[in-house]
Design a protein that fits this description.
mainly alpha; single chain
Length: 78
């Protein structure tokens, strides 16, 4: 039912499963003050745009119940 792994004729292929590299990647460079300020400014601009679009769009989404609804004469059956 289950097959055993076939033997590999090359030793380096058999050891590849347990190989670990001892080379670590270089540390990441820290962002400069200008880069951090730019990221904050971009984030604030995006948030301000979303809030502004909500403020501008809310009157169009709300239903005004203070004004009476005008009915046409056709809807009254005349």
């Amino acid at each position: 039912m289950f097959r055993r792994r076939e033997s590999v004729p090359f030793a380096f292929l058999a050891e590849a499963d347990r190989f670990r590299s001892n080379v670590s990647p270089p540390p990441r460079e820290r962002a400069s003050v200008g880069q951090m300020a730019g990221r904050w400014l971009l984030g604030l601009t995006i948030v301000a745009g979303l809030v502004g679009s909500l403020v501008v769009g809310m009157p169009a989404l709300s239903t005004d119940t203070s004004t009476p609804v005008q009915e046409s004469q056709a809807s009254q059956g005349h």
